[in-house]
Amino acid sequence: MSVTTRAAVLRQGHGPFTIEELQVGPPRPDEVLVRMVAAGVCHTDLRPRELPAEEYAGPQVYGHEGAGVVEAVGADVASVAVGDHVVLSFTWCGTCPSCAAVRPSYCYNLRDYNMSGARMDGTTAFTDSDGQPVGSHFFGQSSFSEWSVVAANSVVKVDSGLDLTKLGPLGCGIQTGAGAVMNSLSVPKGASLVVTGAGALGLSAIMAADLVGATTIVAVDRHQSRLDLAAKYGASHTILSSGDPAALTEEILDVTAGGADFAFETTGHPGVVRAAYEGLTFVGTLGMAGVGNVDVSFGFRSMVSGRTIRGVLEGDSVPTEFIPHLAALNAQGAFPYDELITTFPLDQINEAEAASTAGDVIKPVLVF
Ligand SMILES: NC(=O)c1ccc[n+]([C@@H]2O[C@H](COP(=O)([O-])OP(=O)(O)OC[C@H]3O[C@@H](n4cnc5c(N)ncnc54)[C@H](O)[C@@H]3O)[C@@H](O)[C@H]2O)c1
Ligand SMILES: [Zn+2]
Ligand SMILES: [Zn+2]
User: How far apart (Å, rounded) are the C-alpha atoms in residues 189 and 208?
Assistant: First the structure.
């Protein structure tokens, strides 16, 4: 049996999201039907707009920070039951070497499973009023929809006493920022950390760095308002970036007294990446999460050192463990990421995007 839903559909890469009535098919044996309560908007939902318009392969329902209630489960699903409150995260194949090693965010098939806009057999869960397929299963979930059919391993059960309108962003942006510090880089007490970009990822990384006891926490951004938030949430130093990478390196070396132990990069800007790298000690580590559109280059002299550069996907999270952990920290008042949220009704998704792009809102959350 199919369900009628209202969803935000992106038909053209450079066009607006349009609110449409779609049909959602029933869940397959390894899927879950979720009634969405809220869905965060992450920068990755907006990246299709940066593609040349002719390369866009829509129509597609985006959304990968959903939170809601389970309404039906497929025959093989044992992890959740009807009525459970859930947060939705990324999906993975379950059979590759990374999945076997319980490192699902480095699944060899992560791109196909999360970004192809369909199930692995090419079918989609949504059809439009003309009976045409509309892309689903974005990050296993396509949560910019009142109802969605979701990959079972995207679904994380959470305490039903918690406020679902706050929980969706844990599914991507917040777990990536916090996980970069707590898991990927394992920043220890007393360490120094530079965070480039004080948006959703960067500010959650700063909160986590404060929580683990990093003593020098340097925030870099081009907006003073974001640096003010960084200072509120634990940054000991802030740098307003002028756009000159050499000057930024000098400022980082200055405030860290010769170099940082760690850096976490979220701007996707090549000059900032290079400055973050050159601002490390000779044995420091740079974690890269920001996704840019042009390549980065490094000088040979700076590369031949003891430094490490590593990529960070989803903060090395095992969502069923890390998301409830972060939700519990938040409930104790120790990790106030929910203060970064501004809510919008689903039909104001274009306004939510504009507010995020303008820098006025850190983490837009659509409420259904
Ligand atoms: N690796 C992952 O697993 C993962 C997960 C989620 C998001 N992302 C990516 O991470 C990036 C950050 O996501 P977000 O949600 O935090 O975005 P955001 O827009 O909330 O934050 C980015 C911040 O970087 C700042 N910035 C941009 N260019 C800058 C520059 N040249 N100098 C100084 N500051 C600059 C912006 O002012 C903003 O505060 C995006 O590229 C997103 O696609 C990656
Ligand atoms: Zn995301
Ligand atoms: Zn895998």
Answer: 11
Kindly state if the Cβ of 314 falls inside 6 Å of ligand 1: yes
CATH 3.90.180.10 occupies which residues in the chain? 3-171+336-367
What spacing in Å lies between the alpha carbon of 125 and ligand 1's midpoint? 30
> Ligand 3 mean position to 317 CA, how many Å?
14
Listed in order, the ranges of the chain carrying CATH 3.40.50.720 are 177-313
pLDDT at 1: 75
Instruction: Pinpoint the alpha helices (H) of 72-159.
Output: 97-100, 110-115
pLDDT confidence of residue 258: 96
Query: In which residue ranges of the chain is pLDDT below 50?
Result: none
Q: Are 223 and 200 in contact (CB under 8 A)?
A: no
Q: Does domain 3-171+336-367 have CATH number 3.40.50.1820?
A: no
Q: Is ligand 1 within 6 A of the CB of residue 274?
A: no
Alpha-carbon dihedral 152, 318, 93, 121, rounded to 10 degrees: 40
The topology under which CATH files domain 177-313 is Rossmann fold (3.40.50)
Nearest CA, atom 22, ligand 1: 199
Phi, psi of 74 (to 5 degrees): -70, 165
CA of 310, nearest ligand number: 1
199 lines ligand 1 (CB under 6 A): yes
pLDDT of residue 77: 98
Closest ligand 1 atom number to CA of residue 289: 1
pLDDT at residue 200, as a whole number: 97
pLDDT score of 47: 81
Q: Quick one: pLDDT at residue 359? A: 86
What pLDDT does 197 receive? 98
DSSP secondary-structure letter at 168? G
Report the predicted TM-score, pTM, of the whole model to 2 decimal places.
0.97
- In this structure, which residue's CA is closest to atom 31 in ligand 1? 269
| Contact residues for 100 (Cβ-Cβ < 8 A; gap 6+) | none
Question: What are the DSSP E strand ranges found in 210-251?
Answer: 216-221, 237-240
Using DSSP bridges, classify how beta strands 363-367 and 341-345 pair: parallel, antiparallel or unpaired. parallel
Which bound ligand lies closest to the C-alpha atom of 227? 1
